[in-house]
């Protein structure tokens, strides 16, 4: 399962629940914003700030994540940090 928050993606650890994630995200949005915590495939805990302006996608894919499979975070091409500052 993957979650993408504002164009930054993460491969979630086995055992993370899509329904649980949706409930936590919904609660954070209804509260005007809040942190949502989850565990990624390498066992790290991640906290993301979700607000009514956040764009969140949760995808459940028929793909088993191998313990040594990099990368955990997926950054899209053309990310803000790829641009040169003038």
Description:
This protein has 86 residues and is an alpha+beta fold. The chain contains one helix and six strands. The protein has one helix at residues 18-30, and strands at 2-5, 8-11, 34-39, 45-50, 56-59, 73-74. The strands form two sheets. The chain has a four-stranded antiparallel β-sheet with strand order 5-1-2-6, with helices on one face. The chain has a two-stranded antiparallel ribbon with strand order 3-4. Strand 3 and strand 4 (45-50) form a beta hairpin. The chain is globular and about 30 Å long. The protein starts with a strand and ends in a 12-residue tail after the last strand. The relative contact order is 0.28. Mean pLDDT is 81; it is low at 79-86.
Lay out the secondary structure.
Blueprint: E1 2-5, E2 8-11, H1 18-30, E3 34-39, E4 45-50, E5 56-59, E6 73-74
Antiparallel strand pairs: 1-2, 1-5, 2-6, 3-4
What is the ordering of alpha helices and beta strands?
EEHEEEE
Q: Quickly give the structural class.
A: alpha+beta
What is the total tally of β strands? 6
Helix content: 10-25%
Strand neighbour order, sheet with most strands? 5-1-2-6
Descriptive key words:
86 residues, alpha+beta, 4-stranded antiparallel β-sheet, 15% helix, disordered C terminus
Compact description:
This protein has 86 residues and is α+β, with helices and mostly antiparallel strands. It has one helix at 18-30, and strands at residues 2-5, 8-11, 34-39, 45-50, 56-59, 73-74.
